[in-house]
Write a structure and sequence with these properties.
By secondary structure, the protein is mostly helical. About 65% of the residues lie in helices and about 0% in strands. It has one domain. The chain is elongated.
């Protein structure tokens, strides 16, 4: 890297696949982030019973969707 190096902004067009993904799946990603980061049900109620994480996931999905 020399002293005369400079940054150049590049514009890259979004491929059709990525555009289609973000058009329909962005809401799903938002829901997953809310479920995992905002609610954090799995971290709040620790258990060794297999049914508890399943039920908490279903409860979390219902809360985030409503």
């Amino acid at each position: 890297m020399g002293e005369d190096a400079e940054r150049v902004a590049l514009k890259v067009q979004l491929p059709q696949v990525a555009q289609a993904y973000y058009a329909c799946c962005a809401q799903i990603d938002r829901h997953n982030r809310s479920l995992r980061n905002d609610l954090q049900l799995e971290q709040k109620l620790l258990t060794h019973d297999w049914s508890m994480p399943v039920n908490l996931s279903l409860l979390g999905m219902s809360v985030v969707d409503s």
